[in-house]
Design goal:
The chain has four helices and eleven strands, in the order βββββαββαββββαα. The strands form two sheets. Strands 1, 4, 5, 8, 9 and 10 form a six-stranded mixed beta sheet that branches. Strands 3-2-11-6-7 form a five-stranded mixed beta sheet. A hairpin with a 2-residue loop joins strand 8 and strand 9. The protein binds the ligand Nc1nc2c(c(=O)[nH]1)N[C@H]1C(S)=C(S)[C@@H](COP(=O)(O)O)O[C@H]1N2 and molybdenum atom.
Length: 236
């Protein structure tokens, strides 16, 4: 039975590689290396070479909702709960009295965003290294990505490189215009962006889906060295 879609979303049968257009041609420099940097103002800097090791593996089937209004239902992820990771690697090392409120997520391709720690500790938020039974491909976030199904896709950072825990307001600039990065981006509340209402952003974003999917697909084909790039855009 297909799950019901949240407000303003339409189902797609495929799962396109997708993102902000400046990232179409940026790929992780080390997709085979799952090293994760930890830091922030309440956690000493540290590098984990095998961040998922020793944590309970979780298999989770959930839907994925892009802010531009496409959804892909029933993806099977595998990884560990961010909450378990936090209990193992972060909580015991927090600075005395340190109260992390905001988490900065940074990617190997330069992408970054933030989420409140409380949102990341929800049981359905994973650090995932497998999709549909196989290790993540570069297309979908190798070597490791966040999966936060209750939030728009732009919070599910691919090619995760660093997680920072901040008590003060972190100094991070979203890669997009500020109105495009809602601090929480909860799908159920249609928090697509800041300042502008969700229903308006639906209309702004929806016409951009087709060209964005195409742009990402051709950059990915070029990256793999495919001999025949997709046909140029038909006139619309
Ligand atoms: N590192 C990185 N993570 C990213 C992005 C990106 O461009 N780079 N795009 C975000 C957006 S807008 C979406 S919808 C999803 C798309 O995930 P997919 O490419 O696996 O479909 O990744 C998110 N995480
Ligand atoms: Mo997205």
């Amino acid at each position: 039975m297909p799950t019901q879609l949240p407000p303003g979303q339409h189902a797609r049968s495929d799962f396109p590689r997708f993102g902000l257009t400046p990232f179409a041609r940026r790929f992780p420099d080390q997709p085979a290396r799952s090293q994760l940097r930890l830091g922030g103002d309440v956690l000493p800097a540290r590098v984990l070479d095998a961040p998922l090791d020793g944590l309970e593996r979780i298999d989770q089937c959930c839907d994925f909702h892009c802010v531009t209004t496409w959804s892909r239902q029933g993806l099977h992820w595998s990884g560990v709960r961010l909450a378990h990771f936090f209990d193992r690697h972060v909580a015991p090392r927090l600075a005395p009295g340190g109260q992390p409120a905001t988490v900065v997520l940074r990617a190997q391709d330069g992408y970054r965003t933030t989420l409140p720690l409380a949102d990341l500790l929800a049981a359905d938020v994973l650090l995932a290294d497998r999709l549909d039974g196989v290790p993540l491909t570069v297309e979908h976030g190798a070597p490791l990505r966040l999966v936060a199904p209750a939030h728009y896709g732009y919070k599910s950072v691919k090619h995760l490189a660093a997680i920072e825990f901040w008590q003060a307001r972190p100094r991070v600039r979203p890669p997009a215009l500020a109105f495009m990065d809602h601090p929480r981006a909860r799908v159920a509340l249609e928090e697509r962006g800041r300042w502008l209402p969700g229903w308006l952003l639906r209309r702004v974003y929806r016409p951009l889906i087709a060209s964005t999917v195409k742009g990402f697909a051709s950059a990915w084909a070029a990256q793999r060295g495919d001999p025949t790039p997709p046909a140029p855009d038909a006139k619309r």
